[in-house]
Protein backbone atom coordinates (compact mmCIF):
# COMPACT_ATOMS: atom_id res chain seq x y z
CA UNK A 1 0.00 0.00 0.00
CA UNK A 2 1.46 3.37 -1.03
CA UNK A 3 2.10 6.14 1.51
CA UNK A 4 -0.66 8.19 -0.13
CA UNK A 5 -3.16 5.35 0.12
CA UNK A 6 -2.17 4.68 3.72
CA UNK A 7 -2.63 8.38 4.58
CA UNK A 8 -6.19 8.16 3.23
CA UNK A 9 -6.91 4.95 5.14
CA UNK A 10 -5.70 6.44 8.43
CA UNK A 11 -7.56 9.71 7.91
CA UNK A 12 -10.91 8.11 7.13
CA UNK A 13 -10.54 5.61 9.96
CA UNK A 14 -10.11 8.64 12.23
CA UNK A 15 -13.09 10.65 10.97
CA UNK A 16 -15.56 7.79 10.35
CA UNK A 17 -17.54 8.32 13.55
CA UNK A 18 -18.31 12.00 12.89
CA UNK A 19 -18.24 11.97 9.07
CA UNK A 20 -22.02 11.91 8.69
CA UNK A 21 -22.39 14.87 11.05
CA UNK A 22 -19.68 17.09 9.57
CA UNK A 23 -20.59 16.22 5.98
CA UNK A 24 -24.32 15.77 6.56
CA UNK A 25 -25.40 18.62 4.27
CA UNK A 26 -23.14 17.41 1.46
CA UNK A 27 -24.28 13.79 1.91
CA UNK A 28 -27.95 14.77 1.77
CA UNK A 29 -27.33 16.90 -1.33
CA UNK A 30 -25.64 14.01 -3.14
CA UNK A 31 -28.39 11.58 -2.17
CA UNK A 32 -30.99 14.01 -3.53
CA UNK A 33 -29.07 14.57 -6.78
CA UNK A 34 -28.60 10.83 -7.38
CA UNK A 35 -32.26 10.13 -6.68
CA UNK A 36 -33.30 12.84 -9.12
CA UNK A 37 -30.94 11.59 -11.82
CA UNK A 38 -31.06 7.82 -11.29
CA UNK A 39 -33.03 7.01 -14.45
CA UNK A 40 -30.64 9.08 -16.56
CA UNK A 41 -27.74 7.29 -14.89
CA UNK A 42 -29.12 3.92 -15.95
CA UNK A 43 -32.47 2.66 -17.20
CA UNK A 44 -31.99 -0.23 -14.76
CA UNK A 45 -32.46 2.09 -11.78
CA UNK A 46 -36.21 2.35 -12.28
CA UNK A 47 -37.99 -0.01 -9.94
CA UNK A 48 -37.48 -0.77 -6.27
CA UNK A 49 -36.84 -4.47 -5.66
CA UNK A 50 -36.03 -5.19 -9.32
CA UNK A 51 -36.96 -8.61 -10.66
CA UNK A 52 -33.80 -9.01 -12.73
CA UNK A 53 -30.17 -8.72 -11.64
CA UNK A 54 -28.90 -5.17 -11.13
CA UNK A 55 -25.45 -5.09 -9.51
CA UNK A 56 -24.07 -1.79 -8.17
CA UNK A 57 -20.56 -1.08 -6.87
CA UNK A 58 -20.31 1.86 -4.46
CA UNK A 59 -16.55 2.48 -4.50
CA UNK A 60 -14.89 4.43 -1.69
CA UNK A 61 -18.31 3.92 -0.17
CA UNK A 62 -17.73 5.67 3.15
CA UNK A 63 -20.85 5.41 5.26
CA UNK A 64 -22.96 4.63 2.17
CA UNK A 65 -24.02 7.90 0.56
CA UNK A 66 -24.43 6.41 -2.93
CA UNK A 67 -25.97 3.20 -1.63
CA UNK A 68 -28.58 5.04 0.43
CA UNK A 69 -29.78 6.65 -2.79
CA UNK A 70 -29.54 3.74 -5.22
CA UNK A 71 -29.51 0.42 -3.34
CA UNK A 72 -33.34 0.22 -3.24
CA UNK A 73 -33.26 -0.03 -7.05
CA UNK A 74 -30.67 -2.83 -7.23
CA UNK A 75 -30.65 -6.54 -6.54
CA UNK A 76 -27.16 -6.36 -5.03
CA UNK A 77 -25.08 -3.40 -3.86
CA UNK A 78 -21.44 -3.85 -2.85
CA UNK A 79 -19.55 -1.16 -0.95
CA UNK A 80 -15.75 -1.09 -0.98
CA UNK A 81 -13.56 1.25 1.04
CA UNK A 82 -9.97 1.51 2.29
CA UNK A 83 -11.15 2.32 5.80
CA UNK A 84 -12.33 -0.48 8.08
CA UNK A 85 -14.16 2.06 10.24
CA UNK A 86 -16.00 3.47 7.25
CA UNK A 87 -16.99 -0.04 6.19
CA UNK A 88 -18.39 -0.60 9.69
CA UNK A 89 -20.51 2.55 9.28
CA UNK A 90 -21.62 1.34 5.86
CA UNK A 91 -22.76 -2.02 7.17
CA UNK A 92 -24.55 -0.29 10.02
CA UNK A 93 -26.47 1.76 7.43
CA UNK A 94 -27.33 -1.44 5.54
CA UNK A 95 -28.74 -2.98 8.71
CA UNK A 96 -30.75 0.16 9.46
CA UNK A 97 -32.21 -0.03 5.94
CA UNK A 98 -33.20 -3.65 6.68
CA UNK A 99 -31.10 -4.90 3.77
CA UNK A 100 -29.62 -8.33 4.30
CA UNK A 101 -25.97 -8.99 3.34
CA UNK A 102 -27.05 -10.49 0.03
CA UNK A 103 -28.67 -7.16 -0.88
CA UNK A 104 -26.14 -4.64 0.53
CA UNK A 105 -22.74 -5.41 2.03
CA UNK A 106 -19.50 -3.48 2.56
CA UNK A 107 -15.92 -4.76 2.53
CA UNK A 108 -12.52 -3.24 3.17
CA UNK A 109 -10.76 -3.48 -0.17
CA UNK A 110 -8.64 -1.49 -2.63
CA UNK A 111 -9.02 -2.53 -6.26
CA UNK A 112 -5.66 -0.89 -7.06
CA UNK A 113 -3.65 -2.92 -4.57
CA UNK A 114 -1.43 -5.43 -6.31
CA UNK A 115 -1.42 -7.91 -4.85
CA UNK A 116 -4.55 -7.04 -2.90
CA UNK A 117 -4.02 -6.54 0.82
CA UNK A 118 -7.49 -7.93 1.48
CA UNK A 119 -9.32 -10.99 0.23
CA UNK A 120 -12.96 -10.98 -0.77
CA UNK A 121 -15.49 -13.80 -0.85
CA UNK A 122 -15.95 -15.46 -4.22
CA UNK A 123 -18.32 -13.58 -6.49
CA UNK A 124 -18.17 -10.21 -4.75
CA UNK A 125 -16.39 -8.62 -7.72
CA UNK A 126 -18.55 -10.32 -10.32
CA UNK A 127 -19.22 -7.88 -13.17
CA UNK A 128 -21.33 -4.85 -12.24
CA UNK A 129 -24.05 -3.04 -14.13
CA UNK A 130 -23.23 0.29 -12.46
CA UNK A 131 -20.20 1.65 -10.61
CA UNK A 132 -20.40 4.93 -8.71
CA UNK A 133 -17.68 6.74 -6.78
CA UNK A 134 -18.69 9.90 -4.93
CA UNK A 135 -16.39 12.67 -3.65
CA UNK A 136 -13.49 10.22 -3.71
CA UNK A 137 -11.66 10.61 -7.03
CA UNK A 138 -9.75 13.63 -5.71
CA UNK A 139 -8.36 11.32 -3.01
CA UNK A 140 -6.86 8.95 -5.62
CA UNK A 141 -3.22 9.18 -6.69
CA UNK A 142 -3.88 7.85 -10.20
CA UNK A 143 -7.49 8.55 -11.31
CA UNK A 144 -6.89 7.11 -14.77
CA UNK A 145 -5.77 3.80 -13.35
CA UNK A 146 -8.84 3.66 -11.12
CA UNK A 147 -11.24 4.29 -14.00
CA UNK A 148 -9.50 1.59 -16.04
CA UNK A 149 -10.01 -0.78 -13.10
CA UNK A 150 -13.70 0.20 -13.03
CA UNK A 151 -13.98 -0.59 -16.74
CA UNK A 152 -12.63 -4.08 -16.10
CA UNK A 153 -15.26 -4.61 -13.39
CA UNK A 154 -18.19 -3.45 -15.56
CA UNK A 155 -20.38 -5.57 -17.79
CA UNK A 156 -20.32 -4.53 -21.47
CA UNK A 157 -22.63 -1.54 -21.68
CA UNK A 158 -22.30 -0.95 -17.94
CA UNK A 159 -22.29 2.58 -16.54
CA UNK A 160 -19.59 4.37 -14.54
CA UNK A 161 -20.53 7.49 -12.56
CA UNK A 162 -18.19 9.94 -10.81
CA UNK A 163 -19.43 12.63 -8.45
CA UNK A 164 -16.74 15.10 -7.42
CA UNK A 165 -15.92 18.80 -7.27
CA UNK A 166 -15.18 21.46 -9.86
CA UNK A 167 -11.57 22.74 -9.59
CA UNK A 168 -11.15 26.00 -7.71
CA UNK A 169 -14.73 26.05 -6.42
CA UNK A 170 -14.08 25.38 -2.72
CA UNK A 171 -14.45 28.49 -0.55
CA UNK A 172 -14.72 29.28 3.14
CA UNK A 173 -18.29 30.20 4.04
CA UNK A 174 -18.39 33.79 5.25
CA UNK A 175 -14.83 34.53 4.10
CA UNK A 176 -14.62 33.76 0.41
CA UNK A 177 -11.27 35.50 0.07
CA UNK A 178 -9.64 32.94 2.34
CA UNK A 179 -7.22 30.89 0.23
CA UNK A 180 -6.18 27.30 0.76
CA UNK A 181 -2.83 28.46 2.14
CA UNK A 182 -4.67 30.69 4.63
CA UNK A 183 -6.82 27.73 5.69
CA UNK A 184 -3.73 25.55 6.12
CA UNK A 185 -2.15 28.14 8.40
CA UNK A 186 -5.29 28.40 10.51
CA UNK A 187 -5.32 24.65 11.20
CA UNK A 188 -3.38 22.77 13.83
CA UNK A 189 -0.47 20.64 12.49
CA UNK A 190 -2.37 17.37 13.01
CA UNK A 191 -5.37 18.84 11.17
CA UNK A 192 -3.29 19.74 8.12
CA UNK A 193 -2.82 16.03 7.47
CA UNK A 194 -6.12 16.08 5.57
CA UNK A 195 -4.36 17.88 2.70
CA UNK A 196 -2.02 14.88 2.39
CA UNK A 197 -5.02 12.77 1.36
CA UNK A 198 -5.92 14.89 -1.69
CA UNK A 199 -4.29 14.13 -5.02
CA UNK A 200 -6.10 16.78 -7.06
CA UNK A 201 -8.54 19.53 -6.09
CA UNK A 202 -11.28 18.63 -8.55
CA UNK A 203 -11.70 17.84 -12.25
CA UNK A 204 -13.02 19.87 -15.16
CA UNK A 205 -14.99 18.49 -18.10
CA UNK A 206 -11.96 18.13 -20.37
CA UNK A 207 -10.09 16.15 -17.72
CA UNK A 208 -13.02 13.83 -17.05
CA UNK A 209 -13.60 13.35 -20.77
CA UNK A 210 -9.98 12.20 -21.15
CA UNK A 211 -10.23 9.86 -18.15
CA UNK A 212 -13.37 8.17 -19.47
CA UNK A 213 -11.96 7.88 -22.99
CA UNK A 214 -8.74 6.37 -21.64
CA UNK A 215 -10.75 3.76 -19.76
CA UNK A 216 -12.90 2.78 -22.74
CA UNK A 217 -16.04 4.25 -21.19
CA UNK A 218 -16.60 7.05 -23.67
CA UNK A 219 -20.07 6.03 -24.89
CA UNK A 220 -22.81 8.38 -23.67
CA UNK A 221 -20.32 10.59 -21.82
CA UNK A 222 -21.83 13.48 -19.87
CA UNK A 223 -20.44 16.04 -17.44
CA UNK A 224 -23.04 18.11 -15.59
CA UNK A 225 -22.35 20.75 -12.95
CA UNK A 226 -24.85 20.79 -10.10
CA UNK A 227 -26.88 23.95 -9.67
CA UNK A 228 -26.67 24.02 -5.88
CA UNK A 229 -23.34 24.01 -4.00
CA UNK A 230 -22.22 21.28 -1.62
CA UNK A 231 -21.74 22.48 1.96
CA UNK A 232 -19.71 20.76 4.67
CA UNK A 233 -17.89 21.27 7.96
CA UNK A 234 -14.20 20.59 8.48
CA UNK A 235 -12.53 21.13 11.85
CA UNK A 236 -15.37 23.41 12.91
CA UNK A 237 -15.10 25.60 9.79
CA UNK A 238 -17.88 25.79 7.16
CA UNK A 239 -17.05 25.43 3.48
CA UNK A 240 -18.87 25.09 0.19
CA UNK A 241 -17.85 23.73 -3.18
CA UNK A 242 -19.45 23.16 -6.56
CA UNK A 243 -20.03 19.55 -7.50
CA UNK A 244 -20.43 17.72 -10.80
CA UNK A 245 -21.63 14.34 -12.00
CA UNK A 246 -19.91 12.55 -14.89
CA UNK A 247 -21.23 9.48 -16.62
CA UNK A 248 -20.02 7.11 -19.33
CA UNK A 249 -20.69 3.58 -20.55
CA UNK A 250 -18.28 0.72 -21.23
CA UNK A 251 -18.28 -0.24 -24.88
CA UNK A 252 -20.66 -3.11 -25.52
CA UNK A 253 -18.36 -4.48 -28.25
From TrEMBL:
Pfam family, one: Methyltransf_23
InterPro entries in the record: SAM-dependent_MTases_sf (IPR029063)
CDD domains, alphabetized: AdoMet_MTases
SUPFAM superfamilies (alphabetical): S-adenosyl-L-methionine-dependent methyltransferases
Name of this chain's protein: Methyltransferase domain-containing protein
Organism: Penicillium arizonense
